[in-house]
Amino acid sequence: MNNLIIFFTFSLLVSFSHAIEFDFCVGDLSLPRGPQGYACKDPANITTDDFVYTGFRGERTTSNIFRNNVTLAFADAFPALNGLGISMARLDFGVGGVIPIHSHRTSEVIIIATGSIIAGFIDTTNTAYYRRLEVGDVMIFPQSMLHFQVNVGTTPATAFVSLNGANPAIQLTTTALFASNLPGDIVEQITLLSNEEVMRLKRIFGTA
């Protein structure tokens, strides 16, 4: 038993020493991504530019069905995030634009850069926490909670979010129901919507 404890202690120390062997691990996108992210880029080839992301610059079009545009800054777009357990995104809303109700595997913090939006989340007791946010306001969406954002101003709005996971994923409730291959009769049963309404929504998403 003592030998087993010594072995596991040694293994733990080795794993810790490996974890702190490098100051950072800029992802090498030329290699396949593994479960823990990308392999580290050769430090000899790393420059300041690797730690700067310019993908949030410029204007965005918001012409999709939800009148939004989402620009992701995950490790595959910003390799310096590799191994840090964080990711970012820019959210652009046209007038009346929305980020429909959705969830992530992670928590999320949002800060409003321009415009005015209503943002909120719904917890597992079906209590909704929401309010109007103005420029400079920050709000937290706890891990896995259903949440949303709606532009309620008279001008376009922009916000930035950060998530505490390298691959937070996103599941939009609306598209999960109406843009998937789930049969319409099942959607009717689990949403209490009529067949006509279900088929109308599935036609919008091209799955009818």
Question: Could you please describe the fold and organization of this structure?
Answer:
The protein is an alpha+beta fold. The chain is built from four helices and ten strands. It has helices at residues 2-19, 173-178, 184-191, 195-204, and strands spanning 68-73, 87-93, 98-103, 108-114, 117-122, 128-133, 138-141, 146-151, 157-163, 171-172. A five-stranded antiparallel β-sheet has the order 1-2-9-4-7, with no helix packed on it. Helix 3 (184-191) crosses helix 4 (195-204).
The CA-CA distance between the termini, in Å, is 62 Å
- Order of strands, main sheet, comes to 1-2-9-4-7
- Name the helix and strand elements from N-terminus to C-terminus, one letter apiece: HEEEEEEEEEEHHH
Q: How many extended strands?
A: 10
Mean pLDDT, rounded to whole units? 90
Quaternary structure: single chain
- SS strand fraction: 25-35%
Query: What share of the residues lie within helices?
Result: 10-25%
Total of DSSP H or I helical runs spanning 4+ residues: 4
Task: Give a short synopsis of this structure.
The chain is α+β, with helices and mostly antiparallel strands and 208 residues long. The chain contains four helices and ten strands; from the N terminus they run αββββββββββααα. Helix 3 packs across helix 4 (195-204).
Structure keywords:
single chain, 208 residues, alpha+beta, five-stranded antiparallel sheet, 10 strands
Helices and strands in order:
Blueprint: H1 2-19, E1 68-73, E2 87-93, E3 98-103, E4 108-114, E5 117-122, E6 128-133, E7 138-141, E8 146-151, E9 157-163, E10 171-172, H2 173-178, H3 184-191, H4 195-204
Antiparallel strand pairs: 1-2, 2-9, 3-8, 3-10, 4-7, 4-9, 5-6, 5-8
